[in-house]
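Continuing the series of single-chain predictions for the mutant panel. This is the parent chain; the variants come on the following pages.
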Amino acid sequence: MAEKFTKFDSAEHLKTPEDMAAYFDACLEEAGDDPAFIAQALGVIARARGMTQLARDTGLARENLYKALSAEGNPEFATILKVIKALGLKLRAKAA
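Parent structure:
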């Protein structure tokens, strides 16, 4: 009997703004110096919230958001800030 596996998608488990904020905070902790990891984490949250609505809120094209917030994307910092704001998140700093 063959085993069946399904692909895990974090976006399916981000139901509330608190879930999304906790996920983003954990990703910031884990990312180290990998900006692609942070962009991809924002992409997961964006899919959970709805990419079409995010495109409206940021004024950016939906297709460009998918590309920028993917593992291969390399978005400008201005784009990251627009996305963070539109998702209702805040970027904070603390002493290491």
